[in-house]
Amino acid sequence: MGKTIRLTMAQALVRFLDNQYIEADGEEIKFVTGVFGIFGHGVVVGLGEALAAGDHQLRFYQAKNEQGGAHAAMGYAKQQNRRRMMAVTSSIGPGALNMVTAAGTASVNRIPVLFLPGDVFACRQPDPVLQQVELPQDYTNTASDAFRAVSRYWDRVNRPEQLMSAMINAFRVLTDPADTGAVTVALPQDVQGEAYDYPVEFLAKRVHHIERRIPTGGQISRAAAMIRAAKTPLIICGGGVRFSGAGEALAAFCETFRIPFGETQAGKGVIPWDNPYNLSGIGSTGSLAANRIAREADLILAIGTRLGDFTTCSKWLFQNPGVQVLGINLAPFDAYKMNGEPIVADAKLTLEALTAALSADAPGYESAWGERIGELRTEWKAEVDRLYREEVPPAPDGSPRLSQIRVLGELNERLLPRHTIVVSGSGSIPSDMQRVWRTRTPGTYHMEYGFSCMGYEIAAALGVKIGCPDREVAAIVGDGAYTMLHTELLTAVQEGKKIIVIVLDNTGFHCIDNLQRSQGISKFGNEWNLRDEGNGRLEGRAVRVDYAKNAESWGALGLRAGTPEELEQAVAAALAASGPVVIDVKVSPDSMTKSYESWWRVGTAQTSSNPEVVKAAEAMAVELARARKF
Questions:
Q1: pLDDT by residue (tens digit) across 299-320?
Q2: How far is residue 323 from each of residues 130, 287, 318, 362, 533, measured CA to CA in Å?
Q3: Taking CA atoms, which of 336, 366, 493, 593 is between 20 and 30 Å from 44?
Q4: Does residue 128 have a cis bond before it (omega within 30 degrees)?
């Protein structure tokens, strides 16, 4: 028998995590670098004791909300292109359940995060323990089972020796580019402290090799044949292009064959905005240029994208009756979508092989788009320039305010350094940014829009800053998302991590207010108004919040802006500051971008006493008839 060492389960877990490395493209990288968490009774004397011992290199970050800590870990891993990650831990019950939303966010976006929620006693002797959920019909079901629906892998360690198989399987998934996401390993609080003679081999340095999946000759032949037969192909650049490091290969492919591309939220910024084949965002929140091209395209090269409903306009966008889809993706689940021809392979290697194959077999091939790409890009640039100069009237009380798009334009064109990493994730801001943000430096556009999770932004910006301490990091967030979750601002103060939070305050959930009104519904429940005692609705005076003062109460610098001049002064002060900053910017509620020849299917009421709703439902049915069925 090999050598063993007697450790508690939690001590062995910390040693194991501290010794996980990956090798990718010849570079060896320490994979797990830290742990975010809030200690409660269900974890503090087990895993907490092991982390407190200090005989490891894992840095512990004290979260202020369990969901926020997990979002910070996700933001860190995403900005590191999934080559470094963190774990997150909590007590049982409410602490664990607070992380479920973040686990869903990580899984949808395919970002590795290891969730280690505390759990009830495996021995059951103190039952019901504090914070235990007792379900009489299934006593094995605890709060941690809620993670099953949102985890790529789920396990529970009911005996200390089970840790070994649980961790091997956990890292099998965490290091898999196609299947990665949230991995949950529930830790019963008694088992965390139980000792076992662990094999030294299990605790030794382990290197996980991230291998690129090479496309086969048959795959390249099929894909090349589809491209050769196409006259008007279009590429969708998804997050898989980013994680594959395929930006240069995609740019070369587009230039060689004169093929334009549209960007998803996850793929935006892989190639700078001024590339002659970059049409900006595509889909429901896409640009005029990308959506017009998409309607006419006869071949869609969907590279590294989930083909979500915003990207495809609910399968309505591609109107050419002969259009085909070529799905290039590491995940077979995504490669087969929309009846696509699946190429299950690495994006970078596939693009390089396709470039070589087409150059050899079809020398001189290029798309038939010709000057149309440049013409549409010029038209779209003029529209964005117009939006960037947009002015709006003052608020009803006479106070100055800005257009939301004007703020984005000022930040993008003049005020933020070009290497600033911008973070967002919910409301109307991602829609606007996908359309109009001009990414000048690859890797500086950080958007969570797979789950559109409110509250991701500030926590994720902290995670990004931890991973990129020498870069400016700016979270651009709506007042709704700020209010939803901004507690990790205190963690940023505590850690001395300077993040710039720019709150665009339009006094409400106006992204949904816009959707509501677009479907014929009168304003209801989305604006931040006092209750009108006359009619009982939230239609009284608008509630005004001073977010700068709120930031100051957390220990951050609070600044305010309502004019372009004030915004310029505030950003200059923020850039000169040494710690976290919040800039409270008052913006007009109806100053976001509109739709550009796109559509989005929502469940509009088919019958209503409101004739405007009926009219909207009839219009929805007309467009639905034009959408693909699969």
A1: 999 999 999 999 999 999 999 9
A2: 58, 20, 7, 21, 56
A3: 493
A4: yes
Q: How high is the pLDDT of residue 511?
A: 84
CB 592 within 8 A of CB 432: yes
User: Does some domain include residue 614?
Assistant: no
Per the CB < 8 A criterion, the answer to whether 35 and 61 are in contact is: yes
Given a contact cutoff of 8 angstroms between Cβ atoms, the answer to whether 327 and 261 are in contact is no
Do 185 and 134 lie in a common domain? yes
Cα angle value 415/417/419 (rounded, 5°): 150
What confidence score (pLDDT) does residue 1 get? 62
Residues 318 and 402 in one domain: no
Residues 490 and 563 in one domain: yes
Task: Say what the pLDDT of residue 513 is.
Answer: 81
Q: What is the mean pLDDT of the chain?
A: 96
* Residues 256-285, mean pLDDT to the nearest whole number: 98
Judged against a pLDDT cut of 90, whether residue 396 lies above it is answered with no
Give CA 98 to chain center in angstroms. 18
Q: Which amino acid is at 349?
A: L
Segment (H or E) for 585: strand 581-586
Classify residue 618: in a domain, yes or no: no
Burial class (CB in 10 A: 0-12, 13-18, 19+), 506: buried
| Residue 204 in domain | yes
- The enclosing domain of 287 has a CATH number of 3.40.50.1220
Question: Given pLDDT bands bounded at 50, 70 and 90, which one contains residue 67?
Answer: very high
Please identify, among 210, 235, 267, the residue that sits at the C-terminal boundary of a domain: 210
245 and 195, same domain (yes or no): no
CA atoms within 13 A on the CB side of 253: 30
Q: Please give the single-letter amino acid code of residue 614.
A: V
Same domain, 200 and 221: no
Which residues is 585 bridged to in the sheet?
504, 561
Are 205 and 221 members of one domain? no
Q: Supply the range of the domain harboring residue 349.
A: 217-378
Residue 252 and residue 358 in one domain: yes
Q: Identify whether 416 is part of a domain.
A: yes
Q: Other CB atoms closer than 10 Å to residue 336's CB: what's the count?
A: 15
Helix (H) or strand (E) holding 206: strand 206-210
Q: Are 437 and 411 in contact (CB under 8 A)?
A: no
**pLDDT at res. 271:** 98
Residue 59 near residue 9, CB atoms below 8 Å: no
Instruction: Report how far residue 559's alpha carbon sits from residue 548's, in angstroms, rounded to the nearest whole number.
Output: 5
364 and 488 fall within a common domain: no
Evaluate whether 39 touches 50 at the Cβ level (below 8 Å): no
Tell me the percentage of the chain whose pLDDT exceeds 70. Answer: 100
Is 615's pLDDT higher than 80? yes
Number of domains in the chain: 3
Residue at which a domain ends, from 325, 343, 378: 378
Question: What per-residue confidence (pLDDT) applies to 484?
Answer: 95
629 band by pLDDT with thresholds 50, 70 and 90: confident
Q: What is the pTM of this model?
A: 0.97
Region 580-607: what's the mean pLDDT?
A: 93
Dihedral sign computed on CA atoms, order 488, 489, 494, 499: positive
